[in-house]
Here is the input.
Amino acid sequence: MNKRTLAEKVGHALKARGATMAVAESCTGGGVAFAVTSIAGSSAWFDRGFVTYTNQSKQDMLDVSPQTLITQGAVSKATVLEMVTGALRHSDAKLALAISGIAGPGGATADKPVGTVCFAWVYGEAESQSEVKLFSGDRDAVREQSIIYALQGVLRLLGEKSSV
Here is the structure.
């Protein structure tokens, strides 16, 4: 399913619940926010987006702990879990998602190759969920797959199907 169709489904699901969404993005550079705001009427269900590309911006805008960034790295479950919590705290949204990854071509390490992307989602008072995926392809392909996977994760979190 393409990201436009996914964004429409996310919007429908959020609107049906009277909920809004915030996003905290790093490697996707605002791609999820762009996808959802491409849908007419998205202001009814999209609250805001945080593009926190640097470690400092993650700390300043989302309250990510400097210690987490030092010990776990920006691309880690611990970091995206703090990012998603910060996105909820600094918004009026009921649902949030966070993404941080290595889109390449540089930035990889032995244990975090290019294509490693960490995700976190939270809805209301529920416990945050996180996943790590390894995507293939060049920078654009990794970013595109990350946007799609993030939106699919929102639908899963809401108990919706992400297939047509």
